[in-house]
Amino acid sequence: MAGRGGGGASRPNGAAAAANKNFQFKLVLLGESAVGKSSLVLRFVKGQFHEFQESTIGAAFLTQTVSLDDVTVKFEIWDTAGQERYHSLAPMYYRGAQAAIVVYDITNTDTFVRAKNWVKELQRQANPNIVIALAGNKADIADKRAVEHQEAQEYADENGLLFMETSAKTALNVNDIFMAIANKLPKNDPQAGGGQAGRTGAGVNLHDTASQSRSGRCCSGAGGGGGN
């Protein structure tokens, strides 16, 4: 099944009744412009990396399916634009989302501060049961680090967040963070969350890329840095 790989070993789900169940979840990516949100999604969905990723306009919609034992999880992913002028549109994308990845650039302290603000906004306005992951991207240039791993880990622990440092360039932890989210999401009812995952951005200027892609090459390919 697409999406398996790169250390994303899953825990057994226990009950045999879960066998062959299909679930779909709406997941949104949030963060400042140029922290690498689009690059992370492209790496996860298509196993690709572009050194110079165009800025997202509004939001991009992509899908990827992963396998957890005998359970199939389909992510319907909204990759939102990071520019401030699109901030007012963000609730349109995180409303009804079962999961979110808040991304910052480990070489830029300001993006970490902004990531904290996104977490606060999600905690205040999003689904109260939303699974939030914090991704410290651009780990491949850790020699330029401005945000210490321990500081981010402590913040994540205090706020009940999943946390990993990632690199869209090298694929470090990219598949793993999505798989960790898939493991943590509740899987009680088949087709969970499906009704919320439609194209809620109707009427918005969307940069719609690779919609319905099912490529499983989530951890392959050479890398680069950059991205939106």
Automatic annotation (TrEMBL):
Its EC number is 3.6.5.2. The keyword Nucleotide-binding applies. Keywords: Endosome, GTP-binding, Hydrolase, Lipoprotein, Nucleotide-binding, Prenylation, Protein transport, Transport. The keyword Hydrolase applies. Pfam families: Ras (PF00071). InterPro entries: P-loop_NTPase, Small_GTP-bd, Small_GTPase. It is a lipid-anchor. It is found in: Cell membrane; Early endosome membrane. GO terms for molecular function: G protein activity; GTP binding. Residues 188-228 are annotated as: Disordered. It catalyses: GTP + H2O = GDP + phosphate + H(+). Residues 192-201 have a biased composition (Gly residues). One of its GO terms (cellular component) is plasma membrane. It is an enzyme of class 3 (hydrolase). One of its GO terms (biological process) is protein transport. Residues 210-220 have a biased composition (Low complexity). Belongs to the small GTPase superfamily. Rab family. This is small monomeric GTPase. It comes from Hippocampus comes (Tiger tail seahorse).
